Amino acid sequence: MAYTIKIEGYNEHQINVANFAKALSHPARVAIIELLYERGGCYCGDIVSQLPISQSSVSQHLKELKEAGLILATEQPPKVKYCLDKTKWEMAKQFFCHFFDNN
Amino acid sequence: MAYTIKIEGYNEHQINVANFAKALSHPARVAIIELLYERGGCYCGDIVSQLPISQSSVSQHLKELKEAGLILATEQPPKVKYCLDKTKWEMAKQFFCHFFDNN
DNA sequence: AACGTTCAACGTAAATGTACGATAGATAAG
DNA sequence: CTTATCTATCGTACATTTACGTTGAACGTT
């Protein structure tokens, strides 16, 4: 995370919406979320084969989604299974719905 | 606008969600949208006085929101009145709702 | 032990984003 | 005509993002 952004002066809701929006601000990450939902979970390799970017780039996007709290990784050696963090996803949904309903 | 991003390989919906999310990925822009909604419209100066950033930075954020299509500017010399583009805003809402409902 | 698979992490180049002060243009006010 | 107000834009500095190839760690299989 770590922006070049002044955080003081905004309320928590504004920061939360911005953070989740940031996590969804790249089509690859949107696509990853969709895949994880459709399939209930994916290995990294499954995602790589569905997206037009390299494995290292996919890993980077997964890391961002993890740091945003939207997805969970569980080791299943030698693979890693990714799935949506439903609690956090529900939170994000609430933040956005609240934002959109009021605006 | 203008990413370092490969666009090929994603569908239109993914790109639309990502673009709108990008527009909302900074707390200042979230705050601006909220202000414009609450007040039905604002002059640039009104926004500057509500945010913890400089006038030039506010102008930059307004420009991004304009380019994302979310807001409209009308000249009222020597001021400029900004308001939500309700049509585009409704579109964004639909894209996100569709995205959240399916995921 | 050697090998293959899977994935994270490193290093890097180029593009973008964020923020600011300063400047410039347009208009209204005096 | 001069001045003050409002806002866009320019220039700049620094951080972040995106993408890739490469490497390395962890594990299973032979």
TrEMBL record, chains A, B:
It comes from Thermoflexibacter ruber. It holds the Pfam family HTH_20. One of its GO terms (molecular function) is DNA binding. PANTHER family: REGULATORY PROTEIN ARSR, TRANSCRIPTIONAL REGULATOR, ARSR FAMILY. The keyword Ribosomal protein does not apply. It comes from the Bacteria. Coiled coil: none annotated. Keywords: DNA-binding, Transcription, Transcription regulation. Residues 9-103 form the HTH arsR-type domain. This is DNA-binding transcriptional regulator, ArsR family. The keyword DNA-binding applies. The lineage of its organism: Bacteria, Pseudomonadati, Bacteroidota, Cytophagia, Cytophagales.
